[in-house]
Amino acid sequence: xxxxxxxxxxxxxxxxxxxxxxxxxxxxxxxxxxxxxxxxxxxxxxxxxxxxxxxxxxxxxxxxxxxxxxxxxxxxxxxxxxxxxxxxxxxxxxxxxxxxxxxxxxxxxxxxxxxxxxxxxxxxxxxxxxxxxxxxxxxxxxxxxxxxxxxxxxxxxxxxxxxxxxxxxxxxxxxxxxxxxxxxxxxxxxxxxxxxxxxxxxxxxxxxxxxxxxxxxxxxxxxxxxxxxxxxxxxxxxxxxxxxxxxxxxxxxxxxxxxxxxxxxxxxxxxxxxxxxxxxxxxxxxxxxxxxxxxxxxxxxxxxxxxxxxxxxxxxxxxxxxxxxxxxxxxxxxxxxxxxxxxxxxxxxxxxxxxxxxxxxxxxxxxxxxxxxxxxxxxxxxxxxxxxxxxxxxxxxxxxxxxxxxxxxxxxxxxxxxxxxxxxxxxxxxxxxxxxxxxxxxxxxxxxxxxx
Length: 452
Description:
InterPro entries: DPD_II, FAD/NAD-bd_sf, FAD/NAD-binding_dom, Helical_ferredxn. One of its GO terms (molecular function) is iron-sulfur cluster binding. Residues 40-118 form the Dihydroprymidine dehydrogenase domain. This is Glutamate synthase. This protein is of the alpha/beta class. It folds into three domains: 43-119, Orthogonal Bundle (Fumarate Reductase Iron-sulfur Protein, Chain B, domain 2); 138-235 and 388-451, FAD/NAD(P)-binding domain; 238-380, FAD/NAD(P)-binding domain (3-Layer(bba) Sandwich), CATH 3.50.50. Helix content is 33%, strand content 19%. It has helices at residues 43-47, 54-62, 66-74, 80-86, 90-93, 106-119, 134-141, 152-163, 180-183, 192-204, 217-223, 253-261, 279-290, 310-318, 425-441, 443-446, 448-451, and strands at residues 144-148, 167-171, 208-210, 229-232, 238-239, 251-252, 271-275, 294-298, 322-324, 327-335, 338-351, 358-372, 374-377, 381-382, 397-399, 404-406, 412-414. The longest helix is centred in the C-terminal third of the chain and has 17 residues, at 425-441. The chain is globular.
């Protein structure tokens, strides 16, 4: 109301009118019309692999109700402090607010809430689902699940299975739990105390983790009769090696990251080449830069074609790393205490229709050399045992978005890197949650006639 409009009578009266004819304007019936509302999933939640109710989390946080916001996250994701640091936050790319100015920094908000929960020692809500206590549900369930691997997928599966009333035992090949969260992500991205606190929440729920216990075929046979089902979340732990002359001189980037988290190695100095374009290569480059070396990232395609998350690549370049594009290594030769890396120049042939990435081919005989003090590779990894993978074209195999379910005598769900198309911590968490739901309802019993 302006200064000239002193009373309500001064406000203009607006009357609805029809743009067609008065016969279409059923004025008398308008009093009974009410707006209709369609329940839709917010774009940010739809983009979140873990399926968090992001709009509700933001609303609660905006009101200062941080405990309620934390509990809301935990309904879908047991690791807010971890994901707030390492998730590639696709929710922000889908955020409606980005159409106006900038997307809401959901990952920063999640990190803040997760850290606050650790600082103030928030307790898990009891009960979480329904009105029964978890102990009562676990006693009534009587199901015992064996979980291979204590990475994000295995820990997530244990969390949700325990919430649903089942007992879980995790078998971990390494000396400490966490999988790629502990050994594959540098400390500056995921501090030790944050990881320890988030995992301890799983242990406090009654989950048992057996470290230094690799899950092999003997272990699988031993589970029969002792467990009702198995979740395979072993991950990709066998790195690929360079199949070129002198490839043995290159050090494995994944092992390098593992050694850093394990208290070593000695600082690497000088000029260092890192071959690869994925997230592991970026973590190696950024770790080397923090040691005082001068890392050079060598990638056979273009920067925009790199499978690493774009914001991680940007941060690596801002921290001093150099990127050499369209170069593929063909030889590593030791020379004067260092190495000479011979690189084949590549050129773009065309674009891949499915991914939009450039397909590259050698640019004739054109090469260049790079003198470095050390060479690291981070060109991907595979399973250490082929039987970890879900069976191919087998009757009774049910595939889902993040898992594969083999309807054997001992029901087995494959998840994490073994089944998810996107290799990220958040997708692995989603895989573990989906596995928990599958094992809880055991669709093999319900649909056995159709499956067989």
